[in-house]
Structures are given as structure tokens and as C-alpha cells.
Amino acid sequence: MGFCNTSWTVDARARDLVQRLTLAEKVGFLGHVTAAVARLGIPSYNWWSEALHGVSFVGGGSRFSDLIPGATSFPQVILTAASFNVSLFRAIGKVVSTEARAMHNVGQAGLSFWSPNINVFRDPRWGRGQETPGEDPLLGSKYAVGYVQGLQDNVDDPERLKVAACCKHYTAYDLDNWKGFQRYTFNAVVTDQDMADTFQPPFKSCVSNGVACAMCSYNQVNGVPSCADAGLLAGVIRGDWKLNGYIVSDCDSVDVIYHQQKYTATPEDAAAITIQAGLDLDCGSFLPSHTLAAVQGGKVTEAEVDNAITNSFVVLMRLGFFNGDPRNLAPYGNLGPKDVCTPENQELARDAARQGIVLLKNFDDALPLNPSAINSLAVIGPNANATRTMIGNYEGVPCNYTSPLQGLSAVVTTIYEPGCTIKCSPNDLGLDGAKIAAARADATVLVVGGDLSVEAEGLDRVDLLYPGEQGTLINEVAKVAKGPVILVIMSGGPFQIKQDKDNVNISSILWAGYPGEAGGAALADIIFGRYNPSGKTPFTWYDQEYVEQVPMTDMRMRPDPASNYPGRTYRFYTGNPTYMFGYGLSYTRFQHNLIQAPEKLSITLEEGHPCYSEGCNSLDLSGSAHCTALQFDVHLQARNTGGMAGSQTVLLFNTPPAVHKSPTRQLVGFEKVFLEPNESKSVVFQVDACRDLSVADESGNWKVPLGSHVLHVGDVTHTLTLSI
């Protein structure tokens, strides 16, 4: 049969397979669990596997057994993003896909993984912020492209796929369950401007750089369910961005459109509008259950069904699914249990945590601690001996765990007192033991924060306060501690920590996200100076008053002074955050010097252009030949002026002219550079003004603002003037 002929193109093979199916069989391939078609030798398949930060058991497409009992569990994405290291994003993806292929070869995993989650972390209360690369669209874009390239491993041969990744949840999805508002029925009211410069960029980058799948979200966007919006799916994803792959619904989204949103009068109408909008696969059973009747009723055509399942079959062809026993196929056939949880993979998990952990405060250089000067270390707090908490959600079974207590105890003698649980009440607070331990020990490490009972899928926070009595535990222990107090926060998002920043009894603060299976070892590496922290916070640390002022349901990014609306994220927030996006300290000191950058760029427009007479404040240069002349390099020198080797994360921001309600600053690029003491290295940013300095106007069109752009790296600024 033609679809088995590997000399044919994947498109020809998929078309051959589809034309051999009956209509009833075709409809069966619209759901994520597909039945075998014995007469054609087509095996059953479960499309739903997850690989957010390691191969997961969520979805049923992948599982663990005695043969392969676990897989490497990397830090939750929000912490990996804090590394600002694209090569790390790619390396993790490559390891995860290698382990996935190894599991597939022994029947324990699928080949389609619905990861990564690249929604912008718009609101600090969102329970799923931990799954995302943070609040900045450029960081989200870079993470998406890097991780997907690692998973799919097909940069050199785009038609081939190691595994098929999937960028989700498209689009403007960042509310799960907040004060009665549910993701299933929430209508995200989003301006064209915010859609263009905040919510869409990560998805555009992901799709246009070759991801094999995009997942549409539960919510409505401006009154239309995402999975039924032909403009967003067929128009933008497949049309404008040229998706080479399939579009899948979030699980049971089509069912939700009919039953909960009541958007259509009949189930058949819901089936028809989603397929016609561009949906190819239903995570669920709604399309397989209702599409046959929709075709028979004339609401959708068999040709439209053919198109949907062809898109899915092409991806399976690219994966080699119809090429025979995977163990006999190059280049992945030799992978097996020996390639999962290798020492190298587990070391990468530890290194990823080290690279992401952020040093927020270090008064009087209290860190790193000197192990030889520590006779006893008090290790206190609800997350001090955390294991399961460290891997967050969409998890698998890790190779093993190293808790903070275990990591620290491997270096020095410890005294462990939990003090309280995550949500402990005043009656459950074990202050006496914790205070005695801190008063006796040479130093104290307090490990506090959240877990999946505080922030998770289906669970948004209502405030930014520490859960339970953790705040009391922190204050009381810090008051009596004999030595320095190191506060370690495990969380997917920010808490109000201004009081800890200002507390003279707290020497240092580390944010550790959910640091994965080796989190405790990574923390010990940093606390005892075996590794110099270089992470930068990927979100803004707000105070509690912010969330009291801003409803989670208000999707506006930009501030509105008339209503005292302060705006969202570092790009627009007008208040004073405790720590700004991109903040993070080191055990050494770095200095930046600007070596070279243009001060003026002039754009020559055609004679008679209206901007010569009307005085334009911005130009639409999309697709213009002018953009070639607006590319330039920013040459910097980074120098380690301290006494310890370490990596510096160099962040380049731009403050554009104040036109079109532009951001107060936006990230243009980032580089990671390792420096020995007194060593200097050059860092070069290649800037394209049309791509990097443009802003979205009120209609969502990209414009290049004329006037003064201020480029920032640390405390170095440079003004660049664009003119005609």
C-alpha cells in the first residue's frame, strides 16, 4: 500500500492512507485516542503525551514500568527560563526527546508531546504560571523555539521529527479558576494592540520556526471560542504563520463549546464549526462522536474531515510511525532503557536548576557559606525536605530526588525542623523547635513557598501572601537565629516579599522555583559557593496591594491613569515592584561598557511620502526594503570585577519613544557569558530596528517609532535616534 512506501513523500503517503478509509473510520481519527484499523494494518495510537520538563505520565500516551521506571525530571519551566540560556533550553529538549524515543522503542511512550506551554505569565496569581517561561514575550519566544528545536531535533531536516512538539495554549489563556471565573467559560477581552505585542509573539515564533502542532485553548477571545475561531486557526496559524503540522484542541474543548459555553445549538454544529475553523484533532471524544452526523446533516463535508485527518497523518509519517518496528529504524532505533536517567542527563537537571536559581538579596555578602565554618546548619520550613513539590505539575516519575535537606546534609551537619506545613494554621505551627534550632546553629536555611495545593492547573491564587503561617515562621525564626538566615522560596510565581527584603534579620533570599529532581543538590551548590548564581527573575515581584487593585479578569496590559489601573508586567507596570523582571545578583561583580553602537539612523523614504509633510511619529516598514539599512550591532564589553568566576546574563532593553502607548521598556535580546575574575569578553547584539525596536500600534500593526530610543544594559544607557 502506498502509505507504507517510504520512497513517497509524506503528503502523498498521508493522502493514500486517507482515501482508503471509510467515512466512519475517518471520523475515528479526529479524536486523540484512535482505534486500530486491522484491515489496513494501522495500529491504535494515543496522541496525548506530555513533556513539559521531562517525559510525563499525564495523558496516557506515555507510562512508566519496571523496564523504565522513571525519566529525568528537569526544573519546572519558570525556573529554567530564569537561566536566560537558549542553549540550555535546547539541551533539555534534546535529552527529553531522547528519553521519549527510548521509551517509545519499548512501548512506553508515544511520539506526540503536547509541550511546551508558552502563554505569557500575565498575572502573578495564575496557577499555571509555573509551566511558562515568564512574563516577557521575547523570552517566551526564545524558550519556545529553543525547547521545540531540542524536542524535534530537525533543524537540518525539517520534514523529519524526533518527536512532535506542540505549543499551547493558543491564545490569551492565563486564567484557570479565580473567584468563580473558570477557564472553560471565560471570555478574554483583548485589544488588538495587546494581542499583537503580548499574547501572540511566542506562538508566532514557535509556529513559524517549525513546531509540528499548536493547541487551541478553552477560553473565548472577544466572544469566540479559540478552537472555533477560523481567523485565529486557519487564518493566522495555518495561513499567516504557515503551520507545518496539526492543530489540536485543549482536552474536551469542543465538548465545552457546546455544553458549557452553549455556543452552538447542537453538538453537530460544534463539530462543524471547529473543523471548519481549522481544528484537526480533538483531545477528547466529541468529534468522533458527532462528526458523522454533522457530515450526514450537511453541516461539514467529508473533504473537510479528510483535510483535518491528513494534517495529523502527515505528522505521524514524519515521525516514522508507519515505517515499521521503531527499534529497526535509524537514527533512534538503538535507544532504550540504558539511555534514560543517565548520569549525564541527571547532571543536566542539576545544572539547569543551578543556572535558574535567582539570588534576590545578599546583605553583607552572607552567601556563599563556608562549609568549614559551619558546625551545624538549621534547615527549617515546609519545603526544607521537599521532594514531590520540587517537580511541579505535568510531571513524570523522576530518576530520584535530592531534597534541600539531603543536599545540604551532604555538605555539613544539619538540624531539621519543618516548623509548619505549607498551609499550617496557628495551632499547627511548630515554632519552639524551629527557634531552638536556629538559635543554636551557625547558620539557618529557611525553605518556604508553595506547592500544588497553592498554585496549579485549575487553581489560581487569590492573593500574594505566604500560605498559612509561613510568614510568622520566617519572622520568628529570623529574630532568634544565631547566624545568617538564608530564605529560600520555592514557588511558581511571586509572593509579597518586600517585608523580607527589608528585614535586617534575613541576610539572603534565593528564589528556587520548583527546581526538579536535583533541586536540593543545586541549592547546596549555590549556598556553599560551588556554583555562582546567575539566574534572573522571569517575572515581576509585586506587593499584595497590586492584586487588590487589579482583577485577574482584566486582560489589559497597558495602564489607564483615569481608572488608576497600573498596567501589567515590567513592560507597562507603573508601580514600584519589590524586584523587577530581569533582576538577579551574583557572588561577584560585573561591569558593562558600551564599545560601539550607532547614535543615528536615517530612513530615506520615496519622494512625496506623506511623512515628509505630515510629521509622522512612526513608520510601517513591514516587508520594506528599508529594514535592511536599519540593521546594526551593539558591541559591549562585560568584565568580572569581583573575585569569583561566574556567568553574567546580559540583558539588552529598549525604551522606545512614547508613541502608541508603547512599553516603558522591552527586552531586545540576551546573552550569557562566563567570566573568570578580572576577565573581559565582548558581547555583540545584532539588532534589526524593524524587528526589535518596533511597537504595535492601537490597531495591532507593527510600527517603527521615530525619535529617541534608549538602549539599556544594566546601568549603561545609549540613545539612538531614528529619523527620516
Automatic annotation (TrEMBL):
It is found in: Secreted. Keywords: Glycoprotein, Glycosidase, Hydrolase, Secreted, Signal. Coiled coil: none annotated. GO terms for cellular component: apoplast. Residues 648-717 form the Fibronectin type III-like domain. GO terms for biological process: arabinan catabolic process; xylan catabolic process. InterPro entries: BXL, Fn3-like, GH, Glyco_hydro_3_C, Glyco_hydro_3_C_sf, Glyco_hydro_3_N, Glyco_hydro_3_N_sf, Ig-like_fold. GO terms for molecular function: alpha-L-arabinofuranosidase activity; xylan 1,4-beta-xylosidase activity. It comes from the Eukaryota. The keyword Hydrolase applies. The keyword Lyase does not apply. SMART domains: Fn3_like. This is Fibronectin type III-like domain-containing protein. It comes from Ensete ventricosum.
